[in-house]
Design brief:
Blueprint lengths: L3 H30 L3 H27 L19 H28 L3 H31 L4 H10 L13
Helix pairs in contact: 1-2, 1-3, 2-5, 3-4
Length: 171
């Protein structure tokens, strides 16, 4: 059984995961407006992943006999200056999420809640990948600039991204 404090923080994380999905959809909408369909696809797929993450927390709380309490999700920003600005903000957001996961892990360790520690380890590993992905694309965009054929080549690459939830519930 989860402590009241841990259950509250896990519920808070559901909100942040759904906010992440909402934020990434806002980024996708920006790219739709810029007619960069591959970039839009990248962030729509990212939004799907974040919804999947939220549901991992949702299901875990239920499995541990807790109560899911959904919270209000704030409106995300919807104005961006450029592709580099979007990826910079996405990287900053992923770093925020990483700090949240670390805080949850610290609390779970403090409470010696081993099942939660095990579940959160998956997210610790996932955040390494999330930050690396955003930083890699940001650096590529910064190197190539946003004028010329490079941005269209990257747009084509990003159009191929898909998300298929794994059958066993792990990503």
């Amino acid at each position: 059984m989860l402590s009241e404090k841990l259950e509250k923080e896990l519920n808070e994380q559901i909100k942040y995961e759904f906010y992440s999905a909402y934020y990434y959809l806002s980024m996708a909408a920006y790219f739709d407006d810029q007619t960069l369909d591959g970039f839009s696809n990248f962030f729509r797929v990212q939004a799907e992943e974040e919804q999947f993450h939220a549901m991992k927390f949702y299901n875990f709380i239920n499995e541990k006999g807790g109560r899911v309490k959904l919270q209000t999700i704030d409106q995300p920003p919807h104005e961006f200056d450029s592709a580099a600005d979007v990826f910079s903000k996405a990287l900053e957001h992923e770093r925020f999420v990483t700090k949240r996961i670390y805080t949850l892990m610290d609390l779970a360790k403090e409470e010696r809640e081993h099942a939660t520690i095990s579940m959160l380890q998956w997210f610790v590993d996932e955040q390494v990948e999330e930050e690396d992905t955003m930083e890699t694309y940001l650096r590529q965009i910064e190197r190539m600039g946003e004028k010329g054929s490079g941005i269209y080549m990257l747009d084509k690459e990003l159009s191929a991204r898909t998300f298929t939830p794994p059958a066993d519930g792990e990503e």
